[in-house]
Amino acid sequence: MDVTDLDYRSATELAGLLSDGAVSAVELAESAIARIERHDGALNAVCQRDFDRALEAARDADAARARGEHRPLLGIPMTVKESFHVAGLPSTWGIPEFAGFVPDTDALAVQRVKAAGAVVLGTTNVPLVLGDLQSYNAIYGTTNNPWDPDRTPGGSSGGSAAALAAGFGALSLGSDIGGSLRNPAHACGVYAHKPTLGLVPTRGHTAPGTPVVAADQDLAVIGPMARSAADLRLLLDLLTEPDPLGSRAAYRIALPPPRHESLAGHRVLVVESHPSIPSGAGVRRAIAGFAERLTAAGATVARESRLLPDLAAAARLYMRMLLSELGSRYPSEVYERAREGAARLGPDDHGLAAERSRGTVLSHRDWMLADDERALLRQRFSALFAEFDVVVCPVMPVPAFPHDHSPIPTRRIRIDGADHDYFDQLALAGVATLPGLPATVLPVGTSEDGLPIGVQAIGGMFADHTTIRFAELAEREFGGFTPPPAQRWTEAKTPRRAQGRVG
Q1: Longest CA span, the chain
Q2: Burial zone of 305 (CB within 10 Å; 0-12 exposed, 13-18 middle, 19+ buried)
């Protein structure tokens, strides 16, 4: 078999070919490595290459298969976001002061994919402290989008999404607190799943210089990325076992099965635009077209519901709680400047930027009151999901936007000719993040200039298999991932790179 024909096969397909003996793990690894070496100069997606150890893992996988072993990812090539600890590789989070930080132990999720037989090719690029909707930093440089190298692949899991879209491995691991799994999947036309909060243990997805502990961060999750929805389920199911060092070690969550096995059974609420940030015309058209296809396939599609919580109020609450979580880790001098800025806010200023400013220095008392509001929000969503199976809404207001490395306070996002606050886009991530709900991103169309557009299918608490199955059924009925036109990125100007092969 010509292994170059396998660049865009799913992990599920590759596992079948490996089991049939049609291809070896070494052949898959060698093909993926050659593809990265040939094409990543134009993308800069894989910032740390671990090819020697990948080939060793591939040889071990072939030997294990010859002994009759069967593991879910045995011999499957994949990447891992640079923010995960991978023993022997730097995990810097793009922070120059930690360019030499190399963990000696794998993150728990990395341990699990390796135990399942995965061949880890290397780690993928991120923004500074994972704090952007793009993926660039002073250590590794800028990652480009395979659909258009002049545009971002999203962030903070942008390197992983770009690697998947370019055929650099079948799977990746990413993380999400402000859409960091979801907006790169949308920007690059791939699949991603933000799990229910607390479902997947995060130990070892840890900033350099901080202790590795079995404690979950509020709002934050880790999760799978892939080129097919079925692969999301495959990888998610390997990650959900409780952390043996965690407080919930004895409480394994048995996810309920999908609510339906055909699109015709689904009750879908479609939200084309968020009250706090408008969707561009191209995004609205793609979502409307997807809704029409769902209706034609027999799904019951609604455009409004009295049960839908107040998304504008929820966005304000999310901004406060998100920045409270992030601000608690700011250096003292940065935190003090944030405190001064919040003190200057007018009492009637309830814009999203003001809520972010207040949230950065939120008192413990005010955080507790906010958490009570979140609990009420969860109850409202629970009532909504008694009548609907999934809520379909935008991931981002526009397709992948041009690289913008201007100072963050001055940045704007242009939507249909009007400029909006850059970070107001986070409101769309907050729909699922604040209440801790699962959300699966699937591609549903392209813009007028040929850029991919995705949607997020949000489900009730622990309905992860429902949202992923919905994406699987849509993929089967309407099609899914499409490779970007190769000439768009193979002929692009090489971006700045900082790192080479590690072995």
Answers
A1: 69
A2: middle
81 is annotated as an active-site residue: yes
Tokens coding 149: 């190298």
Q: Classify each residue of 134-169 as buried b or exposed e, where b means 16 or more C-beta atoms within 10 Å of its C-beta.
A: bbbbebbbbbbbbbbbebbbbbbbbbbbbbbbbbbb
Which of 3-30 are b and which e, b meaning 16 or more Cβ less than 10 Å from the residue's Cβ?
A: beebbbbbbbbbbebbeeeebbbbbbbb
Q: Which residue in 156, 172, 175, 279 is the catalytic one?
A: 156
pLDDT in tens, 328-381: 888 888 888 888 898 898 989 999 999 999 999 999 999 999 999 999 999 999
Whether pTM exceeds 0.70 = yes
- Cβ(317)–Cβ(350) under 8 Å? no
Instruction: Give pLDDT tens digits for 181-218.
Output: 999 999 999 999 999 999 999 999 999 999 999 988 89
Burial class (CB in 10 A: 0-12, 13-18, 19+), 69: exposed
- Alpha-carbon dihedral sign for residues 123, 129, 131, 136: negative
57-84 pLDDT tens trace: 999 999 999 999 999 999 999 999 999 9
With a cut of 50, say whether residue 395 has pLDDT above it.
yes
Specify the DSSP element, H or E, that contains 79: strand 77-81
Residue type, 150: D
pLDDT for residue 487: 67
| CA pair distance 332, 215, nearest whole angstrom | 23
Catalytic residue among 24, 31, 81, 172: 81
Q: Is the separation of the CB atoms in 455 and 287 below 8 Å?
A: yes
Statement: residue 500 has pLDDT above 70: no
Angle at the Cα of 161 from the Cα atoms of 230 and 168, rounded to 5 degrees: 85
- What pLDDT score does 251 carry? 76
Of 473, 472, 469, 465, nearest in space to 199 by CA: 465
C-alpha span between 63 and 51 (Å, rounded): 18
Which of 180, 228, 324, 357 is the catalytic position?
180
